[in-house]
Structure formats: structure tokens, C-alpha cells
Amino acid sequence: MALAPSFKPLPLLPLQLPTSRRFSCSCSVVAQPDYSSTSLSSSPVTYRPAVILPGLGNNTGDYQKLALTLQGYGVSTVVAKVSRIDWLRNAAGLVDPNYWRGTLQPRPVLDWYLNRVDEAVNEALKQSQGGSLSIIGHSAGGWLARVYMEEFTEANNNIALLLTLGSPLQPPPKGLPGVVDQTRGLLDYVEKNCRKAVYAPESRYVCIAGRYIQGSRFFGDSEPASTAPVAIEQSVPVTSESGTLISTGATFRTRFVGQGYKQVCGQADVWGDGVVPEVSAHLEGALNVSFDGVYHSPVGSDDESRPWYGSPAIVEQWVHHLLN
């Protein structure tokens, strides 16, 4: 099972930037606080702590640089304790008939991960002395955060913000040839059973997607891919951050990436972060944001040439959500 796209089902679950790179932001729905007059990195103010939830295949150490970056803004962090080998625990679901039917549920298969989240949340609550906190879910950690918030209800009163980074948040469409639900029904469960996303003063969902590379169909022409993003139905318009992205003619690379996108959203020739399509990383009801030129994972990223969501110059574009 895989939580983010791959090209065959996994056993269970699923900078400084170059100065020439430009970022801009506009949002007609919610006015954001103006931090332009304050040097955030030198501010002595301490903000609510954040819990970082690793994505599929990632470990705690992959997020240490992100944690240090956030500390520079006055945000203390707790990264859920996960090792790469821990993900092999998901193989236990292979003995569940629901896995083969595509109707798998998160518990008990993912109890090991949810318990690690709960430990991290309790540690963050000690830091906040019982106050509010933020959850940052990367990749599969984004929808697993939703499961945690549904199952561990005592923590909900303290969670003020769920911010997802390149998370596959919607189940793949059913009945399309060549599309296999690699979560084996887990995302269907989340969509049907977890509370809907909102963006309100007392609880906020912010879903960030990357537009790093556009996929292409495996069998298709070699014409350059369209630069227009896939249409997204949502109650809150997308805020687009303008940067550097890859749009070329169909190549082996774009076809390979496109097949991964297809397993997640049912379409290959869409934009995404190289792993998760943009359309799948947004939720109706949330504040949905897209960043151009942003890669999916800290593994294989480079702050200069291939920044990921946690690279310093990218964090600068979304950290204000943690500070209000």
C-alpha cells in the first residue's frame, strides 16, 4: 500500500533560492496578516508549537532542517518519531481481506503511526502548557493527520491549524483503466469518515501543492504540454506562487511521472510536485495554495536547484499561517 504515488502498489498504505526566482501571492478570499514590517527570523515572540508528521518512507531526520528553519521564526517543533523501517509494519494489512477488496480502513493497520503522532502531540502540548498547536503533515502525513484528528478527539480542542504539504488528500477515481488505488481504500475511508476541511478563525486547513513538473500520457504525441493547470472544483480559490517549473515536450521522464500522477488522480497530463498531482493535494473548504517549482520530498531535493516544501525560501512563503 502506498500513500503517495508510485508505479506499483507498495505493501500497504498508501536556499536560499537563486535570486532570479520570483514569488508572488494574491488571495481574494482571506486577508492575511501583514508581516512585511517585522523581521520574523529575529522576532523574540514565541508562537504555538508545531508537530511535523513524516510522509511515507520518510523518517524523523528528514525534517530536522525544516524544524530548525521554523525555530528561526519562533516556532518550536516536535517531529513524530518514525524510522524508515517502521513503514514495513504496514505489511500487516496484507492479511486483511479488505486490502484485496480495496476497502481497507486505517485502524488497526496504522495504529503504530497514529500512536507516534499522539506522542508528538502530547509533547507539543507540554511545550504550549495546554495551549493550541499546529500540525504540519507532509505527503501521507497530511491525510494521516486527518485520521488522527478524527480518532483521537481529545486533541482536537488544541489543534488550531492543519497545514499539509504535498499530501494526496483525495481518493483516485474508480473504474478508470490502468488506475489502481494504491491506498487500497484508505483515502476513501478518510473522505467518508473524517471531518470536512474548514478555514475559520477557530480551525484552519491550509493545503499546499507543488507545480514542479507536468506529466504526460504514456502513449501520446510529442507536442509540448499545456502550461494551464488542471481545473479544480473548490470553495476557496487557489493562491498561486509564481516560481520556476518544468513544462517540456513528452519525454520518458514526463511519461514516467505522468503514470504516477494517473494512479492518484486518474489523469497523467497534469501538474504536480513530481509525486502528488496538484489537484489531489487540495481540499474543498480549505485554503488551497500552489507553489510553482516546488518538489515533493526532502529526499532528493536541493535548496538551490530543486527546492521542496521545507526549503527555507519556500517556508518563508507559508510560515505566516503558523504565526497568526
What does this structure look like?
By secondary structure, the protein is of the alpha/beta class. Helices cover 23% and strands 14% of the residues. The chain contains eight helices and ten strands. The strands form two sheets. Strands 1, 2, 3, 4, 5, 6, 8 and 10 form an eight-stranded mixed β-sheet that branches. Strand 3, helix 4 and strand 4 form a beta-alpha-beta unit. Helix 3 crosses helix 4. The longest helix is centred in the middle third of the chain and has 17 residues. The radius of gyration is 19 Å and the shape is globular.
Structure characteristics:
324 residues; alpha/beta; eight-stranded mixed sheet; two-stranded antiparallel sheet; 8 helices; 23% helix; 14% strand; disordered N terminus
Strand and helix map with partners:
Elements: E1 50-53, H1 64-71, E2 77-79, H2 97-101, H3 111-127, E3 133-138, H4 140-151, E4 159-165, H5 186-193, E5 199-200, E6 203-211, E7 213-214, E8 239-241, H6 252-265, E9 271-272, E10 287-292, H7 312-318, H8 320-323
Parallel strand pairs: 1-2, 1-3, 3-4, 4-6, 6-10, 8-10
Antiparallel strand pairs: 5-6, 7-9
Beta strands, count: 10
Task: Report how far apart the termini are.
Answer: 37 Å
The proportion of strand residues reads 5-15%
Helix fraction by DSSP (H/I, runs of at least 4) = 10-25%
Average residue-wise pLDDT:
80
> Could you list the spans in which at least 5 consecutive residues all have pLDDT below 50?
1-43, 221-242
